[in-house]
Amino acid sequence: MFQQSTFGKLLMPFFALFTVVNIVFIVWAEKWDAMQLNHIVIIFGNALLFLLTMLSLWLLLKAISHKNPNVLFRSVLLSTFIKIIIVGTGALLYITYIPKENRSRLTVIAVMVLYLVYTMIEVKTILGMNKKNSTNVKS
Question: What is the pTM of this model?
Answer without folding.
Answer: 0.86
